[in-house]
Amino acid sequence: MEPFRIDIAQEDLDDLRDRLARTRWPDAGPGPGWARGIPLGYLKELARYWAEDFDWRAQERRLNQFPQYTTEIDGTTVHFLHVRSPEPDAVPLLLTHGWPGSFVEFLEMIGPLSDPRGHGGDPADAFHVVVPSIPGFGFSGPPKDGGWGVPRIARAWAELMRRLGYDRYVAQGSDYGMLTSLQLGLTAPENVSAVHINMLVTFPPDDAAIAELDDSERARLDHAMEFALDGFGFQKIQSSRPQTLAYALTDSPVGQLAWIAEKFKEWADAPEVPEDAVDRDHLLTNVTLYWLTATAGSSAQVYYESGRLPDQFARTWGGPWPVAMPVGMAFFPQDVSRPIRRWAEKIVPSLVHWTEFPRGGHFATMEQPDALVGDIRAFVAEHVR
Q1: d(CA 136, CA 134)
Q2: What are phi and psi of 29, to 5 degrees?
Q3: How do residues 106-121 score in pLDDT, each as one tens digit?
Q4: Which residue has the higher pLDDT, 318 or 178?
Q5: How far is CA 156 from the centre of its chain?
Q6: Which of 80, 135, 217, 229 is 20 to 30 A (C-alpha) from 65?
C-alpha cells in the first residue's frame, strides 16, 4: 500500500479551461425545460462557472486532508481513503459509491462518522472509515482486463479490508455501492457484520402481488415503470456501447458535464436545477474528477459487466440477496428507486431496519449527509455494537 496525494498538473487545468472556452454549442432544441435533456441556457452558465469561478486547487486541498492510498488487487490499482477514528472501539465501516458518483460523495460524512466527539456526537458511535474507488472510477483507473462486475469488486473489497487488518466490518452503499455491499455480505459472510444501504430495487414477484398494493405502494411502482420507459437511456448505452460513449465524454468537458449534471437533476431531490439538492462546487468536484482522470468510459464498463442484457440486469439489481447478517435500509423519497417494503423483505430476508426520510434522493450522501449518518449510527448501535 502506497500513500497517495492528488496533485493535478497545471497544464491539465489550463487545457480544461481552454476546451470549455472553445465549446461548440448545439441549438436549444424545441421546447423549454428538461424533458429532452439538459437545457442549453442552464448548461452554458454551469460551464461558465466551471471555467471561471470553480477552484479545483481549493477542492484538491480539501480532498488531500483525508489520508489516501493505492494498492494493487487482482491486477488493478485500487485507490482508497482510510480514516482511522481516534476512538479505540470504533467499528470499521466500508463505504462504496456508485455511478455517476465517486469517493467525493462521502466528504461531508467522513468527519462525523470517524470523529463524532469532534462533531458534537457520541464517541460511542465512531467508525474507522474506508472509502475505495471502484476500479475504472477516478484514481483507481481503468482495469487491464474485463470481468469487473459486482462479484469481482466485492472480492477485491474483501481483500482490501483483510490487508487493512479488519476482520469484522460494516458495508454501506447506494447504487453500485448497494450491489457491492450486499454481494460482499455473500462473498465474505464471516467478515461482514452488517450491511446498510440507501437504495434497493424491488421487482414485483408476480401479478397477484401488484393487485395487493395500496395507493402509496402503487405510486412507487408507477414511478419505477415510468423511469424504466423514460429514464433508462444512459443505462442502455453504458451497458452496451461504453467504449463508443467514451470518445465523446473524454474529448468534451461540456459533454461530460451534461452527462452527469442531468442525473443530479433527475435523480436527486432537485425540483428545478441540481443545485436545489447538491452544492454546485461539490457537484463540479465530482465532475472534474471524472474529467481529469479520463474515466468516463472505464466507469461505464461496470454497466456492461453487470447489466448488459435485460435478464442479467434484473438478476443483478433485483436480487434476491440471502445474506446472513442484518441489513438496514434508509429510504429517501426522491430516489429513482422507490422500493416497496413488503417486496424488499422477500428479496432481503434479513432486512431488519427501515427508515423513511421526508427529503432527499439518489445522492443522499451529498443531499442529506447528516440524516444518512444518523441512520447508519442508529442501525449499527442496535444490530452490531
Answers
A1: 6
A2: 80, 165
A3: 999 999 999 999 999 9
A4: 178
A5: 17
A6: 135
> By three-state DSSP, how is residue 291 classified?
helix
Distance (Å, whole) CA 345 – CA 320: 10
- Which residues is 132 bridged to in the sheet? 80
Residue 355 C-alpha cell reads as 427508515
Q: CA 295 from chain center: how many Å?
A: 15
Number of Cβ atoms within 10 Å of the Cβ of 43: 19
Bridge partners of residue 194, in order along the sequence: 170
- Would you state the cell numbers that stand for residue 120, as one nine-digit string? 458534537
Provide the 10 A C-beta neighbour count for residue 366.
Answer: 25
The cell for 113 is 462518522
Interhelix angle 10-21/40-52, nearest 10 degrees: 150
| Strands of the 192-197 sheet, one edge to the other | 2-4, 68-73, 76-83, 127-132, 91-96, 169-173, 192-197, 327-331, 351-356
Asked whether 72 and 65 are in contact (CB, 8 A), the reply is no
Q: Which residue type is seen at 12?
A: D
What is the C-alpha separation between 150 and 172, in angstroms, rounded?
Answer: 14
Write the CA distances from 70 to 141, 164, 176, 253, integer angstroms: 11, 12, 21, 26
Which one, of 243, 225, 171, 237, lies nearest residue 340 by Cα? 225
Helix boundaries (H) for the chain: 10-21, 40-52, 56-63, 107-114, 150-163, 176-187, 207-211, 215-230, 233-240, 242-251, 253-267, 280-293, 296-307, 310-318, 341-347, 364-367, 369-383
CB 328 within 8 A of CB 194: yes
The confidence score (pLDDT) of residue 309 equals: 64
Is pTM beyond 0.70? Reply is: yes
Residues contacting 339, CB < 8 A, separation 6+? 200, 201, 202, 220, 329, 331
Reference 109, options 97, 98, 193; nearest CA is: 97
